[in-house]
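quick one before i forget lol
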Amino acid sequence: MQSITRQELEQMNDIDRDDFVLINVLPRETFEKQHIRTSINIPYENSDFIDTVESVAGDKDRKIVVYCANFDCPVSNKAADALEQAGFKSIYDYEGGTEDWLTNH
């Protein structure tokens, strides 16, 4: 798992949008209040989290970027670790999350 910055995520969104999946790992209620426009919601708390990510990604080699609320939120790190342990090869954690993104857009 690698951490990425807002600038790196912006570049991925501009250049490689079809090459990765951006996943908000917070509960649906939180996602519905605010999220990064290009993201989808797959809550880490769901028992089928890994299977759903694999279904959406298509395979375990696709780039996955996970994020949660902000730098203090531990959920994206836990989700990234779980995905790596499940065999996903390219996992990125946008630690700044929704707060960092929306503050700067």
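fyi Strands lie at 2-3, 20-24, 40-41, 63-67, 91-94.
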